[in-house]
Amino acid sequence: MLSCQRLLQERIISLLQSCKTIKHLRQVQSQVTANGFSRSEHIVQKVIVACGLLKETECARKLFDEIPVPSVSCWNTMFKCHYLNAEHREVIILFCLMRSFDIVPNGYSFPVVLKSCIKINALREGKELHCLVTKSGFASNSFVGTTLVELYSNRNLIEAAYKIFCEMPERNVVAWTVMINGYISCHDIIAARRLFDLAPEHDVVMSNTMILGYFEVGDMIRARELFDKMSRKDLMSWNTVLNGYANNGDVEACEALFEKMPEKNIFSWNGLIGGYAHNGRFPQVLTTFNRMLAENKVKPNEATLVMVLSACARLGALVLGKWVHIQAKANGYSGNCRVGNALIDMYAKSGAMESAIDVFRSMKRKDLISWNTMICGLATHGHGADALNMFSEMKNAGEKPDSITFIGILSGCAHMGFVEDGFSYLKSMIDDYSIEPQIEHYGCIVDLLARAGLLAQAVDFIVKMPKEADAVMWATLLASCRVYKNVEFAELALEKLVEFDPKNPTNYVMLSNVYGDIGRWKDLARLKVATRDTGFRKLPGCSLIEVNDVVSEFYSLDERHPDKEQIYESLKGLTMLSRLYGNIPEGDTDID
DNA sequence: CTAGGGTTAG
Questions:
Q1: What is the mean pLDDT of residues A238-265?
Q2: Which residues touch A535 (CB under 8 Å, ≥6 apart)?
Q3: Where are the PPR repeats (predicted)?
C-alpha cells in the first residue's frame, strides 16, 4: 500500500514537470487534491515551481500562502519562482518577509536571493546578505561563495571578489570560472589568463569563457589558439568563436568557420547573420536568412528576425521586408515587442509610414524603443507634426522620453521649420527630464536654424554652444548655405570640413555648387584646382533599388546593370511623381 | 530547492 502511494506521488511529480499550459497544470492539480496530496509539502513545492515555469507567479503565491507554516525549503521554492520570472524585487521583499518570521535561511536561500541582487544591481542589499552569510556560517558553502564572487565582480569590485574567492575552503571549476569571468569583465585579460593557467581543472565552460574574454579585447589570435587546443569542444565553443569573428569585423573567418561547423543551432545562424549585419553586408544577411529557411533545420527566432528586418531597413527593401513580416507571423512573433520595433523601423525607413503606424498601433506591449522608432521615423519622413503629436501621446501613456526621443523631436521641428518650438523642447529636455544635450542635439538645433535661413544665428549657436562642433554639423550648415546662396558661411563651413577630412572631395563639390548657383565661375575654377590637389575623385553616387524583390546597387549613369531599363523606367516614374508634388529635381553641378 | 557560458532593434 505504501509503495502504491509512492508510485502515485512519483507519477504526479512527473506529470507536473511535463505541464506545458496552465490548463494542463489545473488538471494535474485536481489530481493532487483528489489523491490527498494537497497537504504534502513536497508535492506543493513541485506545483509552485510548475506555476513559476508557466509564468503564473500569482497562482504560486496563492498556494504558498495556504501553507500553514512554510519551511525554509518552501520559501526557497517561492524565491526561485519569482526569480524565474525576473521579479527580483519580489525575491528580496519575500526574503525580508521570511526573516521577519524568524525563519533562518539556509545554503539554498542565499544563492537565489543574491542572484536577484545581481540582476537589479542591488549592491547594498547584496552586502547585507554577505554579512548575514558570514554570521550564519554559510561562508564555506561553495554555492554561496561563488555567488558572492559574482556579486562583487559584477560591480567591478574585483579585489573584494578575489578576497572571497581566496577564502573559499574549496574551489571547484565553477568558482574558478566565475573568478576568471570577473577579471574579464574588468578588462584584465592578463589576470584572467593567469587564473586560467593556475586552475587545477579545465572544462568546456571555462575555456569558452576565456575564449570570449580574448574576443572581447580583440585578441583573435589567442582566442583561436585556445579554441584549436581544446580537446572537447561543444556547440557553444564554435558559436563563441563565430560571434567573436563577427564582432571583430572578420567576415571571411566567420564564413569559413560556419561552413566547418559539425552542427549548427539558431545561435550559429544568428552569428553568421550578425557577422554580415555588423559589417554592412546587408544583401548577405538576406541570402543567409533564405538559406536558413531553405535548409529548414532550425527556425528563426526573435534575434534573427530583428537582424534581418534591420538589414531590409538599411536597404530600403520594402517588398522583402513585407515578406519577413509574413515569416515573423508564421513563426509566432506577431506580438513580440522587439520584432515589432524592427518592423516599425523597416516600414518607416522604406517610406511605408501607414504600415509602420499599423504595426505600432497593433502592439500590445510597447517600450521606449517602440515610441522612439515611431517618433524618429515620422520626423525624418516629413511628418514632423505627427512626430510631435506622437510625443504628447507618449507622455500621456506614461512613457519617459530619453535623449533619442529628443533627437526625433528636434529633427521634427527642424524639418517643419518650428524654430521656437525646437528651442522650447530643448529647454524642456534639460529642465524637465535632466537630459544633458549631446552633440547630436546641438546638431539638430543648427539644422533647425540653418533650414529656416537663420544662417548667422546658426553660426553664432555653433560658436557659443558648450560642445565642439563636428563635421556633420558643418556639413548641415553647408547644405543650407547652398539653399540660401550664402557664400560667406559656405566658405567658413568648407574650411572647417577640410580640417576634419582634407581628402573628401564631396565637401568641395558642395561649395562649388554654391558658386555655380550664383555664377561665381572664377571661384568655381579655383576650387576645381583645389579639389584636384586632394588627389581624390568623387565616387559616383550609388543607390540601392529593389527590382523584382532583389536589392541591387547601381551607380549614377550606370549602364551595366541587367535591369537598367527597368530601373530607369522606375526612376522616370519617381521623378514625375516628385514633380507632381512640387519638388523640382535639379541636375547637380559636378566637378570634372 | 541551490552556483559558471551566447545573438537582436531606436
A1: 96
A2: A503
A3: 203-233, 234-268, 336-366, 367-401
Closest nt by CA–C1' to A46: B1
User: How many whole angstroms separate alpha carbon A332 and alpha carbon A364?
Assistant: 15
- The alpha carbon of residue A427 and the mean position of all alpha carbons in its chain are separated, in whole angstroms, by 29
User: How many Cβ atoms from other residues are within 10 Å of residue A388's Cβ?
Assistant: 21
**Locus of grid cell 551607380:** A555
Task: Tally Cβ neighbours within 10 Å of residue A97.
Answer: 12
> For residue A548, what pLDDT is reported?
52
H or E segment and range at residue A554: strand A550-555
DSSP string, A277-335: HHTT-HHHHHHHHHHHHHHTSS---HHHHHHHHHHHHHHT-HHHHHHHHHHHHHTT-TT
Residue A344 half-sphere exposure toward CB, CA atoms < 13 A: 25
Could you report the per-residue pLDDT of A42-62, keeping only the tens digit for each?
888 888 888 888 888 888 999
A71: which nucleotide lies closest, measuring CA to C1'?
A: B1
* Nucleotide B6 C1' to residue A239 CA (A): 7
Give yes or no for CB of A281 within 7 Å of strand B.
no
Q: How far apart are CA A578 and CA A587, in angstroms?
A: 15
CA of A210 to C1' of B5 (A): 10
CA of A181 to C1' of B9 (A): 27
A331 strand B contact, CB < 7 Å: no
Average pLDDT over residues A567-585: 43
pLDDT tens per residue across span A153-167: 988 899 999 999 999
CA A18 to each of CA A5, A15, A537: distance values in angstroms, whole numbers, following the listed order: 20, 5, 67
* A188: nearest Cα among A164, A210, A165: A210
Q: Structural domain boundaries of chain A? A: 542-580
The residue that minimises its CA distance to C1' of B8 is A303
State the Cα–Cα distance between residues A50 and A182, nearest whole angstrom. Answer: 33
Stated in angstroms, how far is A243 CA from B8 C1'?
Answer: 13
Q: Is the CB of A274 under 7 A from strand B?
A: yes
Nucleic strand B under 7 Å from the C-beta of A172 = yes
- pTM, two decimal places: 0.82
Say whether the CB atom of A146 is under 7 angstroms from strand B: yes
Contact between A286 and A551 under an 8 Å Cβ cutoff? The reply is: yes
pLDDT of residue A31: 81
Does the CB of A552 fall within 7 Å of any strand B atom?
no
Q: Is A474 helix (H, G, I), strand (E, B) or coil?
A: helix
CA distance A272 to A516: 48
Determine the distance between A207 (CA) and B7 (C1') in angstroms: 19
User: Å between A377 CA and B10 C1'?
Assistant: 9
Strand, helix or coil at A242? helix
Q: Which nucleotides of B are covered by protein (CB under 7 A)?
A: 1-10
